[in-house]
Fold these 3 entries.
Entry 1:
Amino acid sequence: MTSHSSLGLDARRAFAEAIAKKAGALALGYFEKRESLVIETKRDPQDVVSIADRDVENLIRDAVHEAYPGDGFLGEEYGLEGGTSGLTWVVDPIDGTSPFVNGMPNWCISIALLHDNVPVVGVIFAPCHGELYAAAVGSGATLNGKSLSLDPSRTIRNSVTGIGANNHVTPAFVAAMVEKLLSAGGNFIRNGSGALMLAYVAAGRLVGYYEPYMHAWDCLAGYCLVKEAGGWYHTFPTDGDRLTKGAPVLAAAPGAVEDLRAIAGI
């Protein structure tokens, strides 16, 4: 991989932090007046979107175009734009739209930067909680400026695992993965935002996160955070059009990797 300094990752991480805060302020304004939002559905009634998602993505996209015009950009709402720099921003403007539109605080802004198929910057901002998670390859991960470092003594049996599910996988598959986790002595939560639960893995609040089908914009920022905090993640396929397709997502603290890989079959 090209060196950290030659990619300007410190500056790009600082940029991502700043724009995540601006995007978060815009999203929070919509959240506070969500009763007036027009809610649309995508694939099914549980897969929702609003003008808030679109406006937040446009804010981030416009900022990237201005600051880094040679970079590519992939957003959940408007898709992929190629670039010339070899770097691609991968953004979920509001991850956890269902909690967002239903008045729950578990949603976030997720901004990742991809280089050579590796997430090299990851920023997740949870406006309702006032929490900014940030990482860059080789520089560690932080929560509101405080360094994050995972405890290797934490396992699925003495901690909680996050899980995600959607209609890309069958109810039977979801039931089986929950049964495997519980049978192995673990327990789980699901808060409606995969990106935020990955940030919680980096912060040591969860010992791992597994979702059998997830998109790049949901996971790449969290992956960078987990890695830089001392954890492990299952590589997301990003070659060619794979970047816009779904894939299994798994990230874990050191003491949970073996168990969760067995549960996920990865």
Entry 2:
Amino acid sequence: MASSFDKFQKRRLISSYFSVVLSVFLVLFLLGLLGLFIINSKRLSDNFKEDIVMTVFFKNEANDTIFKAFETEMKSGKFAKDFNFVSKERAAKEHEKTLGENFTEFLGANPLYNSYDIHLKADYVTNKGFSKMESEIRKNPMVADVVYDKQLITLVNDNVNRISMWVLIISGIFAFISILLINSSLRLSIYANRFIIKTMQMVGATKAFIRKPFVTRSIILGIIGSVLAILALIGVLVYISTNYPALDIFKDNLLTILVLLGVLVLGVLITWIGTHFATQRFLNLRTDDLY
């Protein structure tokens, strides 16, 4: 009978340990994802902004000398991140693929212009930045037109600011909820040992002596959960880097390492503080209240 009860207690203890490790792992993994998203959010938004194209059309009279001068101006300027020359022949072929027919034969000539597709640096992807760039480009007498999506620029900037604000709010709420969840798991694991705590207290053990093994055990469980969360986060980073190399997810290695170390430290702190207050609660209970 005693052996069966001991096995039951051991299984219950292992189950409580597993629940603590699982809670720490899940919570810290999600918090780590939020942390990685926050430190990479600017790069993600910058990549999205820099995909917006400004197209500069040149008159048919423009020659190679004009194009080279324009390219030199773009390279020396502070606005353009990169640019790409699109000849009117190439533009015609792209239109033919889109339309599914050779419109130049129907018209008897190619009505398109030579052009440049320009991507601005993220800091200048605003209506003001594009307008200033446009005004500078239009000073060139060989420029026929400048085209870009003003509505898209406004939409992108408004959404980026709105998303950043909500990410910070959700991160704060989630961090608070996660601490409560881990604390609940720790209290449940200590609850199973409440009679042992009270017995040790009755034979004269100090609170610090009784608390020490519980705190030590919880910190070890917290470290195990944190390490598992870090390994999972590294796996996510490797997956993103392999499948989406354009995001350059490992560019800020220092910040990434700090987030991963923060996950480890947070796992230790939460389990330490949570166990301290949980054991203190049972230490302050009267014997009758244990039932």
Entry 3:
Amino acid sequence: MSDTLLAFGRNWLGGMQVDVTRYVIFSVGVWLVLWVMLAAPLANRKIRDNRPPARQLLIEFAVSIRSIMIFSTLGLLTFGLFRAGLLPGPYIAKSWGPAWFWTSLVLMIIAHDAWFYWTHRLIHDRRLFRRFHRQHHRSNNPSPFTAYSFDLGEAFINGVFVPLWMILVPTQWPVIGLFMLHQIVRNTIGHSGYELFPARKDGRPLIPWLTTVTHHDLHHAQAGWNYGLYFTWWDKLMGTEHPDYLKRFSEATARKDRQRKATSSPSPA
């Protein structure tokens, strides 16, 4: 019994270490690169003129660490099943070869986007919002640290997807690692406040089916729109895409330097 508890404890701590490291690298990295090192060159890609206060960033960081603790606890479910020989999926997936390796990764990302869209809409119900989703929307003006800034209930909803997927779909463990890497990259960039996605000459997104930074930033500004995580499919299908999204994206990706525009305006007498 003690050996079992020790194994579970080591797995929990190991999962925590990996997830915290991944979160810190990308949240701090995106903040450092965009908000400090490239702040001046990317000034014309800044979606909002103001920045959130330092206190908000510290709270987001602390709450995100709490969310990661919940993710690691939920991860014990798959570890326990695997250790008990009740989770054959990783072995089955490996026997299906490299084609399934990459196919399962793509399917997992698509499935997660659907999971996120519908659970996200659910917790925006006024009967659930205050308990499940209010913490995330305290960051009206988000930052890279907002990525995992969840209430306990929302952290559970987001964290339980991976165990459910592993139970239902044969998936190798390295696929889970790649999925988590993709998820944190998209999450921190999506909350970065800088529109990094390319635009066509007419100002529309070059890849229209991917959510952009503007897409999610609008959700934080006006919570009744843009529930998607990676793709715009569900928002378009369900009529929940912000009506001014394309206009706002075009404004955020305009090549005109805002500072130059300001200095070219006639000064007051």
